[in-house]
Write a structure and sequence with these properties.
3 helices; 5-stranded antiparallel beta sheet; globular; alpha+beta; SH3 type barrels; 164 residues; single chain
């Protein structure tokens, strides 16, 4: 029973459903989606100048100005405005490290996606069998500040919402 992996998959599905909803219906009210991801992860498609500015991790905000948002089983892609020019990026789910929607007071933090685990002593495709047990997946924990980049305190947004 691989509960940690199942929990991680379920929480990543929350982010996927939110992005899918935004792609189909837009974002209602004050909702804005913060998505942090590792820029060097295989499968991340990002303009070289953006990768240079954000060599480790980047957080994008989907709120008012985003175009061509597409979501599927592998990840998402979107066009955003950076410095007045539109840039298209694609991000696989395994590269996503955090997801937040301050309007809903929701924040999720993800550990790196692990490949499927292999039973002790069995070989994964292309690997030799090992007597060591395969490392288990790391469970997803509630979001803390994204590593690197700008740290955004959710408390600020919660206070604003309560005061309105």
């Amino acid at each position: 029973m691989d509960y940690p992996r199942w929990i991680a998959e379920a929480l990543r599905a929350v982010a996927r459903r939110a992005l899918d909803h935004a792609a189909r219906e837009g974002l209602p009210g004050d909702h804005r989606l913060y998505v942090s991801f590792r820029t060097g992860e295989p499968g991340v498609v990002l303009a070289p100048d953006l990768r240079e500015i954000h060599p480790g991790e980047m957080t994008v905000i989907l709120q008012n100005q985003f175009w061509d948002l597409e979501v599927d089983e592998d990840g998402f892609s979107v066009t955003l405005a950076f410095g007045g020019s539109r840039q298209h990026l694609s991000v696989p789910w395994g590269a996503v490290t955090a997801f937040a929607d301050p309007a809903a007071e929701l924040g999720l933090r993800f550990e790196p996606a692990e490949p499927e685990t292999v039973a002790p002593g069995e070989a994964a495709p292309g690997q030799e069998a090992s007597p060591e047990p395969a490392p288990g997946p790391v469970p997803v924990t509630p979001a803390g500040p994204p590593a690197g980049g700008e740290v955004v305190s959710m408390d600020r947004f919660r206070r604003q919402r309560r005061e309105e």
